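Page header: ASSEMBLY MODEL / two components / 760 residues total.
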Amino acid sequence: MGPGPSDVHPRVLRAMSTPLVGHLDPSFVEMMDEVQDLLRYAFRTENKWTIPVSGTGSASMEAAVGNLVRPGDTMLVPTNGYFGGRMESMAERAGGEVVHVDAPWGEPLDPADVADAFDEHQPDVFGFVHAETSTGVLQPDVPELTSIAHEHDALVVADTVTSLGGVEFRADEWDVDVAYSGPQKCLSCPPGASPLTLNDEAMSRVLDREEPARSWYLDLSLLEGYWGSDRSYHHTAPITNVYALREALRLVAEEGIEERWARHRHVAGALKAGVEAMGLEMNAADEFWLPSLNAVRVPDGIDDGAVIDYLLDRYDLEIAGGLGDLSGAVWRIGCMGHSARPKNVSYLLSSLADAIDAQDASVSVDADAGMEAMQTALGE
Amino acid sequence: MGPGPSDVHPRVLRAMSTPLVGHLDPSFVEMMDEVQDLLRYAFRTENKWTIPVSGTGSASMEAAVGNLVRPGDTMLVPTNGYFGGRMESMAERAGGEVVHVDAPWGEPLDPADVADAFDEHQPDVFGFVHAETSTGVLQPDVPELTSIAHEHDALVVADTVTSLGGVEFRADEWDVDVAYSGPQKCLSCPPGASPLTLNDEAMSRVLDREEPARSWYLDLSLLEGYWGSDRSYHHTAPITNVYALREALRLVAEEGIEERWARHRHVAGALKAGVEAMGLEMNAADEFWLPSLNAVRVPDGIDDGAVIDYLLDRYDLEIAGGLGDLSGAVWRIGCMGHSARPKNVSYLLSSLADAIDAQDASVSVDADAGMEAMQTALGE
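Prediction written out in full:
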């Protein structure tokens, strides 16, 4: 129940132990088509350029940023969480100038601020984090953000690492040009092959670059030869991870993407209800609550790390501490993919209550009220 | 029996289906130590900076080249195969100037030519390919090459993608500063986490860079925080691939690295003897023969692709065609790791003989002589 990797479904683990074929074997090439189709389904897109990048989520992030941002381009990035900072570092390494749209950690971007930043800086690329893993905040108003960007002829990159497959995201309907994700969050797949989608306009900009992207490994104009219609050799794909991603995406399709979003809201909603009834406070306001990542405020007088260690030692249960501005201030509790099940929420709530009580501080939580609120929310 | 991925040992496949823990879980952190120790054993090095890079072999290659080469640096790269060209592209993207040491495809570098290139260009970094997967050529004289480079205060990067764990390579004794590899060749591990080692001098150059490396994902000064003593978060490691790599490296240690090199020579030697007795010709001269990758000349009148397809269709057996300058001229037959077993060589030789005969060309091969020579070489 940490911020990822989430628990992997047995079918996906089984897929990981499939014997290998070559990365140019006809059977693998067919599988590539299937994975691309399933990724399109999860992203809610028709984009041709929808592929797994051969690395973990930060690799798909750098594939997005490093290919779109050309030397001298300006990229607008948010300051409201850890991953905006990572975008910034990647954009600078790509030779870009970085400008900011500000919001405090724990709050989403305000479209008015985004519009102001566009008027002031006229950026070429705008990046935002749809689901901020560091703060547990969901960015609302995505269509409003993309329309501001498009009025200014900028391309939009969305970080959907902690939303894809768990929280409503619609690449085409919301007019997002590029979106990337990781497999080990709401898709519950081992990390190693990471979703990326680009629409035609974004891919044209990549293919029209005068200077190649600064990473050969992540150069999408070269990857186009492998994942496009040629299927020609670029690098050896992480074959087993692609097997696993296929199986994880099949589970998404079998459940139905909208049903899967609803399950995350339902199960994480019970987690949230339980946490609040226990007397703890969520970090994000209700309107920006991110079901897949629940940032819970650490009560005064409690050592966040001691609770985390206690849960791991006593209950074999992982949750994480805060990052950056929220270090020491929150616990981050994931509710993602195969982990988003009622029994996990129940186990988490009772264990967390015990862990806080065990700190022997003046703080105590009402475990019974938490369990009752959870059961009510689950309709049990 | 293609140029990789090779067959994965059942123990390694089993490791791939181990349930995940977090990338900062104490049990995983312990495993990281073990993997680093086992990698040192395989590379024959004491280098502290010995890690699996989170990607396939080209990612460890770009981690090496992209971190060592600073804007304005000059890198000397070879022209005698496909992978020198890839080094060149990576060095240029890192902002480096590239100069060449020439040798034809299918021949190794001559130390005299390397010395001349150093005198002429005074490069900062020298890259060479220890085992050229595109030509089946093993680079001899490594200590001579590294000593030329060090006399000129340059750092040496070795591509050991197709040698690590299968063909003699000694990072420390041969004074190689940086070496990288892939897991899916002689280590017989699914691709996704790729070996890299740097000595202190190379790592100092990386840590002293004025301008950061151009890839965030592959920035070794940042990875230092995760794989070094801090174990602090950089990106989510491909956990399952690290499990698998540990198991594959344990198999190397159980067999013994020198015994493993000997097995590759022995088994691939039988393959070579069989191929030659059948009347086919190896592409590399005997002194430069690479046991792990056997490039066999396609006889005149035979369509290389038809034979490859026939083997896959009829025998479920993968071999590959030539790349670049050797496209259409050779078949590339791997004999790597778990695939380097007598029964595979026997199956390969009889299948290949049948495939060539089936082409109904004027070319015929002596299958019986091939099998006999193979058995003699195996001591059967």
